[in-house]
Amino acid sequence: MKRFPALILPLLLLTGCGDKTVTFEGAETFGYKDFAVTRTLTADQADTVLDGQTLLNPSHIFLLDSLLLTKDSDADFILNVFSLNNKSLKGSFLKSGKGPYEEVSSLIRKAPQERKIYAFDFLQKKMLSFAYDQIASVSDGVLIPTDIYTNLTGRPQTMLPGERFLSGENDTLSGPSRIKIYDRDGNLQTYFGEYPGFQTDHRKELMPMLLNYIETVASDDGKRLMFLGKSNDLVEIWDLEKQAAHRFLHGPELRMPEYIRHSIGGSVEIIMGGRYLCYSEAISAAGSVWALYDGSISAILDDSFDLTKPTPRVENNSRLLRFDWEGRPLACYQLPCPVKNFDVDERGEWLYCLTKQEGEFSVIRFPL
């Protein structure tokens, strides 16, 4: 990997110069060649995990010991529990609604160090936790949460040890700070850090996207955080004990924040976003960080861009990248099909993938 000094570089203006080597201030660049292991996983290596099970519209899967959870907002219950031993449905829980054990909008996060999962409800500003042992015994659709957190003032993104959570929501006190940590009652504990520099005249306009359009992963010991960009491939590693940035990495395709000026009714607006889909669905497992990497075009933004029409979007999450907590590129796996979501067992030996092929959802697994 190469370390670049802080450079005065033009921000990409979507004019076809996206392949120039530009980067963020203080960032080290890397490419696919820097991964210690590169492997191609093939379809004949995969086996189907849930034979004969109907999956309506799942968005996420979670491994809990010998169980597999699916999050499916179109099903009668949001979370459905399957046994990996006999590939059968054990039970379901967490209905959509405004009752005490229900949620309107759920973001599910695993906390392996606590052996719990957390369900965040942004609209109701509450959070429910469920222990693995509880989930293993579910059968009738009603599961009493281990804990209920209400009136949260932050917007939880990731759970941290000690019943703390990282928030992606700006507030009047912390403003645009990179790291904002709250206690279980939603009280702001600490905030620090800034997004790394890059040359642009529109940092203020770009910051909401850059701060929030990311994948967030916490180490099991709660000492480090990793942010991975969704529309640019910046990787940030933050040290929570020192309350400082540990390392910035940029790669493997060196995508930068992008914008375009677009005139509407005589006024000039800045369209933020970017053409590319980068990191998605990042997790911590087996002492490493794993993330899907897309690299395909999300939208064509140029002078002819028409806000009144849907933008083309092609998702192709067909690479899985693995990093250690120093940011070293460990492995790049080429997948045989696009993957919607995934999980990895605690030993890092099996990869479970949620896919959709020919209109049907399925969960398949590969040996690593």
Q: Can you tell me about this structure?
A:
The protein has 368 residues and is mostly beta strands. The protein has two helices and 29 strands. It has helices spanning 132-136, 203-212, and strands spanning 2-3, 28-29, 37-40, 47-48, 60-64, 67-71, 79-83, 88-93, 106-111, 116-121, 126-131, 147-149, 156-160, 164-167, 179-182, 188-192, 214-218, 224-229, 234-239, 244-250, 259-264, 267-272, 279-285, 288-293, 319-323, 329-334, 341-344, 350-357, 360-367. The strands form seven sheets. The chain has a six-stranded mixed sheet with strand order 1-2-20-19-18-17, covered by helices on one side. It has a five-stranded mixed sheet with strand order 3-26-25-24-23, with no helix packed on it. It has a four-stranded antiparallel sheet with strand order 4-29-28-27, with no helix packed on it. The longest helix has 10 residues, at 203-212. It starts with a strand and ends with a strand.
Secondary structure: elements and pairs:
Elements: E1 2-3, E2 28-29, E3 37-40, E4 47-48, E5 60-64, E6 67-71, E7 79-83, E8 88-93, E9 106-111, E10 116-121, E11 126-131, H1 132-136, E12 147-149, E13 156-160, E14 164-167, E15 179-182, E16 188-192, H2 203-212, E17 214-218, E18 224-229, E19 234-239, E20 244-250, E21 259-264, E22 267-272, E23 279-285, E24 288-293, E25 319-323, E26 329-334, E27 341-344, E28 350-357, E29 360-367
Parallel strand pairs: 2-20, 3-26
Antiparallel strand pairs: 1-2, 4-29, 5-6, 6-7, 7-8, 9-10, 10-11, 11-12, 13-14, 14-15, 15-16, 17-18, 18-19, 19-20, 21-22, 23-24, 24-25, 25-26, 27-28, 28-29
